[in-house]
Amino acid sequence: MTVLGPGTQADLLSPEAVADPYPLLAELREHDPVHWSERYRSWFVTRYADVDAALRDPRFSSDRISPYRRARLDGPDADPGVRAAFGVLEDWMVFKDPPDHTRLRKLLSRAFTPRAVERMRPRIAEIADGLLADLGPEADLIGEYAYPLTSSVVAELLGVPRADRSRFKDWSDRITGLVFGGMGDPDRHADGADGMAELTAYLGALVQQHERDPADDLLTALIRARDAGDALSHDEVVATGVLLLFAGHETTTNLIGNGILALLRHPAEAPDAPGTVEELLRWDGPAKTIARLMATDVELGGRTLGRGERVFLCPAAANRDPAVFPDPDRLDVSRRPGRQLGFGIGLHYCLGAPLARLEASIAIPAALHRFPQLRLTEDPLSWHPVLLSRGLLRLPVVTT
Ligand code: HEM
To answer: Gene3D superfamilies recorded for this chain (predicted)?
Structure first.
């Protein structure tokens, strides 16, 4: 294997690295832990100690939408639809720094409580069982199980009527281009912007309906959430609804897909041990990288990360750092849990972590227990060719 030095080109989107990023991430972590990529005009940070510290450091800013909007979308030539779509993203707490982030997070935390999540437990099991019962002898566990499960759960939690849920997949797929896509592809932006416009119009009407006719769901709780007299505006409730629908199922689908795959390949590991979900998040979790923008110059690992430069902090590399996890490439569900960075850490630590853990702890063993003969039918498998997340396009299996 080539030893990477400063200036050598590492490409996390090469076909080999998309299929299995861990050898390249290990090489970076060992030989060039704060790596400048000319190809992506970005830094890649791979050691646990550095990723952990950077995620807690306000100089690594989460506000990466408004600088782009100011530079590219405020001019007279900019597409108004794309500008409006980025306006919704700008209202997402995940793209904000304090004090705006603090305010939005407090209000969402009032509504999205551990109690609201725990109440979903029986429904998650019921939805999982229903989907598994419908599978034929050959099935795709992403398209026919993980995706419909996680999108139904978050839609139901929010209070989206069942009849409308099928439309969310299309909207969400199109928005993915805006959120995960490179910042520079105008066609993907235009299509993503149309999807965002349709989804926000739909949710805007649903919020109005909930304002008139409150229900026992998260959308109503968001409308009612108060902190010291402060509340979310109508647009903020809509944007937060979009964020939850989006954040709530793409990533969890990937955790369920990656998790079932890992356990199919390691049949000796128990699907329902207390530490299984945590170890699956560590070993092959959905968060490959987390992006930040440098608010100021920072020295890290002997390199200077310049103000305005983009940084990819890599939980996928940190979670296999031998300085923290002994024998890190081994999947071991009996490992002492804790410390994995798959939900981030610090101010932006994933607000949906309890829901994601609950869904995965039900869905993964449910599939493996119901179909003890479950086998893969495709190898090599196809993975999403993106920097930020790690997930399968399909998980084709035979069930009998
Ligand atoms: C396995 C599934 C999941 C993974 C791996 C995951 C991962 C993450 C990560 C890494 C962050 C931090 C981003 C950053 O620091 O910039 C985050 C934030 C967030 N996640 Fe999750 N997530 C998952 C599921 C969910 C679910 C189910 C929901 C809600 C329904 C959710 C809602 C959020 C929200 C609202 C934030 C923003 C928090 C903030 O900015 O303060 N996530 N997630």
So the answer is: Cytochrome P450
